[in-house]
Amino acid sequence: MGKLEQQIVDKAKSSGDTFITANPRFSSQQCQNCGQIAKENRESQAIFNCVKCRHENHADINAGQVVLVQELSVLASTLYPRPFQSCQTSRSAWYFIIQLAFVFSLMINMLNARSLSSELISCSRR
User: Fold this and answer.
1) CB-based burial label for 108 (10 Å; 0-12, 13-18, 19+)
2) Measured distance CA(44)–CA(82) in Å, rounded
3) pLDDT tens digits for range 72-119
4) What three-state secondary structure class fits 47?
5) Left if phi > 0, otherwise alpha if psi is -120 to 50, otherwise beta: which for 72?
6) Do the beta carbons of residue 11 and residue 22 sit within 8 Å?
7) What spatial distance separates the first Cα and last Cα of the chain, rounded to whole Å?
């Protein structure tokens, strides 16, 4: 862990916040749709095409979505380390997971809409 990251972790702990890190390894080769990891998924620096499920997206957006899912998983496991310990905890954990999934789907839709609109704008300028 680097010095800056350690300072951020310490600051988060002292203020009662949670600091989450995700391992970005293979995020540029992993499909956010099916999870498959392959070098062949990267058609170019900017284009991501999954060879398994045929998911297509901008490579940076796909990698960002992969990292976001990892971070949300870490956050969920941090807040609810044992979600099935009791019936009440289990219900709260499921509500939280459903809320995370909803927020995540909204973020994905926003990213895809932004990507699509930027593609349309660049096409109209040609």
Assistant:
1) middle
2) 42
3) 777 777 666 555 454 444 556 666 666 677 677 767 766 666 655 555
4) strand
5) alpha
6) no
7) 46
